[in-house]
Amino acid sequence: MTARRRDGNAGDRGVPADFAAALRSLRAVQLRPEITVTETPAPGRLAPHSVALLGEALDGDDEIGSGRFVLLHDPDGQEAWGGTFRVVSFVRAAVEMEMATDPALAAVAWAWLLEALNDRQAEWDAPSGTVTTTASESFGALSDRPPVGEVEIRASWTPTDSRLGVHLEAWADVLARVGGLPPLPAGVRSLPTQRRTRR
Q1: pTM, 2 dp
Q2: Which of 55, 97, 153, 192 is most open to solvent, judged by the fewest CB atoms within 10 Å of its CB?
Q3: Average pLDDT over residues 157-181
Q4: Is residue 95 a contact partner of residue 149, using CB atoms and an 8 Å limit?
Q5: What are the distances in angstroms from CA 114 to CA 155, 160, 173?
Q6: What is the C-alpha to C-alpha distance for residues 161 and 159, in angstroms, rounded to an integer?
Q7: What is the per-residue pLDDT for 96?
Q8: What is the distance between the alpha carbons of residues 135 and 66, in angstroms, rounded to a whole number?
């Protein structure tokens, strides 16, 4: 996992100690085996330092959910963040039409995010985001296609602790839940997940 600096150069050398520690915390995370993470180019204009990960939730070989986790860092802080770090994320997955058309789904999906952060004992502030639900049905020449539902959670929040890895774990928990993966049984630990670096 590499750091992204505003000048476009990547690497851990020359980054602030706080951001280097954040990267170490992210690297130490062990996600459940159904969640794969790939590093992707991070946005360069939102903060002086950033790292971005693409995630997939898999059921066998089938993708059942996808998302992105971006950690931004500005040593001087940003007023809108209320801190020096900011997580920007989204998760997306197909859902059954009955669920997609449920008017309570958006509020429930947002609650999943907050619950995941609390369950991981992450410390955070200033959450914001949107939940979008769609239900699509095809007609005419496309009428043989089954109805499709989808939910997408876009969220950002300000971590107020130094354990940035638990924020990544919480995001992965939401990705798994939206994708329909069953929760891990109590006491069962995830196996290490290999992080692939996109070149």
Answers
A1: 0.84
A2: 192
A3: 95
A4: yes
A5: 10, 15, 11
A6: 6
A7: 86
A8: 18
What pairing do the DSSP bridges indicate for beta strands 62-78 and 49-59? antiparallel
DSSP string, 122-154: --EEEEEEEEEEEEE---GGGTTSPPEEEEEEE
Which ranges constitute the DSSP H helices of 50-163? 97-100, 105-119
Q: To which H or E segment does residue 156 belong?
A: strand 148-159
Q: For tokens 């919480």, what's the residue?
A: 170
The predicted structure's pLDDT at residue 185: 59
Question: What pLDDT does 173 receive?
Answer: 96
Confidence at residue 57, expressed as pLDDT on a 0 to 100 scale: 95
Tokens representing 60?
A: 């066998």
In whole angstroms, what is the distance from residue 35 CA to residue 66 CA?
9
Helix (H) or strand (E) holding 5: strand 4-5
| Separation CA 44–CA 113 (nearest Å) | 26
Which of left, alpha, beta for 132 (phi over 0: left; psi -120 to 50: alpha)?
beta
Cα–Cα distance, 47 to 89 (Å, whole number): 15
For residues 143 and 10, the model is more confident at 143
Query: Average of pLDDT values for 105-129?
Result: 96
Longest dimension (CA), the chain: 59
